[in-house]
C-alpha cells in the first residue's frame, strides 16, 4: 500500500512529527529516507527488504554502493548516495561523541562503536583506539588485516603510531568473523605482548575488545587485562 493511502496518523512522516522519531520502527525510518517504492511494491515493503537483506542498520553501516544495487529500486545513484550519506553521518556522530568525552565514562558505548565499525567485516581486522590523557578519542585506526582466522600484528607499528599521535592510552580491538566472541590463547598472548611493549613508552592498554556480528566482549571486564 502506498504511504499516501495509509491513515494519516500511521504515515511515517506524520507519525514522526506528531510523536517523535523514537516511535518509528526501523522500517518506517528507512522508508522516510527511501521516500518511494517501486510499481507493485510499496516503500515500507522495500525498506523491510533492505533491512532484512543487509542485517538491519548495523549491516547498512558497512554496505557499499554496489551492494545496494541488489535491491530493486536502488539502482539509481541518487537514492543510494542519500542512504550512504546518512549511514556515514551515523558513524561520524558516534565517533564525535567519543572524542568529546571520556571514552570510559560509558564502556558500553565503546563496545557499540566498535561493533558498528568492525563486526560485519568478512575478514579479521585489528584496530586501535588511541586516547589522550583525559581518555578522549584521538583516532581509531585499523592497523592490520588478516584472513578469516588470524591477523599478523606487529607491536612495533602499534608503538610507533602511539608515539606519532601522542597517545596516553589505547583500547585494542579486533573482530571474530567466525562468530565466537571468547578470546583465544593467541588473543591473550597478543594483549600481554602489546601491553608490555606500550608500557616502555608509558602508554597504557585499557582494554581489548572482541566483537562479532551479534556480541562483544571486554577483556578488561573479564579480568584478562
From TrEMBL:
Residues 103-225 form the MPN domain. One of its GO terms (biological process) is proteolysis. GO terms for molecular function: metal ion binding; metallopeptidase activity. Coiled coil: none annotated. Transmembrane segments: none annotated. Belongs to the UPF0758 family. Keywords: Hydrolase, Metal-binding, Metalloprotease, Protease, Zinc. This is MPN domain-containing protein. Pfam families: RadC, UPF0758_N. InterPro entries: MPN, RadC_JAB, UPF0758, UPF0758_CS, UPF0758_N.
Amino acid at each position: 500500500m502506498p504511504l499516501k493511502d495509509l491513515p494519516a496518523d500511521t504515515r511515517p512522516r506524520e507519525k514522526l512529527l506528531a510523536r517523535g522519531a523514537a516511535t518509528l520502527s526501523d522500517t518506517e525510518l528507512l522508508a522516510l529516507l527511501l521516500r518511494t517504492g517501486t510499481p507493485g511494491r510499496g516503500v515500507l515493503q522495500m525498506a523491510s527488504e533492505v533491512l532484512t537483506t543487509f542485517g538491519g542498520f548495523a549491516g547498512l553501516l558497512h554496505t557499499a554502493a554496489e551492494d545496494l544495487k541488489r535491491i530493486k529500486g536502488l539502482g539509481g545513484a541518487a537514492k543510494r548516495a542519500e542512504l550512504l550519506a546518512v549511514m556515514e553521518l551515523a558513524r561520524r556522530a558516534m565517533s564525535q561523541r567519543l572524542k568529546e568525552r571520556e571514552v570510559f565514562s560509558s564502556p558500553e558505548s565503546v563496545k557499540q562503536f566498535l561493533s558498528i565499525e568492525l563486526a560485519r567485516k568478512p575478514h579479521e581486522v585489528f584496530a586501535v583506539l588511541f586516547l589522550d590523557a583525559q581518555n578522549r578519542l584521538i583516532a581509531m585506526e585499523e592497523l592490520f588485516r588478516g584472513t578469516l582466522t588470524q591477523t599478523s600484528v606487529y607491536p612495533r607499528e602499534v608503538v610507533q603510531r602511539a608515539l606519532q599521535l601522542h597517545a596516553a592510552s589505547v583500547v585494542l580491538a579486533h573482530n571474530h568473523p567466525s562468530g565466537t566472541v571468547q578470546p583465544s590463547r593467541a588473543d591473550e598472548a597478543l594483549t600481554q605482548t602489546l601491553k608490555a611493549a606500550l608500557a616502555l613508552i608509558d602508554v597504557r592498554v585499557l582494554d581489548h575488545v572482541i566483537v562479532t556480528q551479534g556480541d562483544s566482549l571486554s577483556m578488561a571486564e573479564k579480568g584478562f587485562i
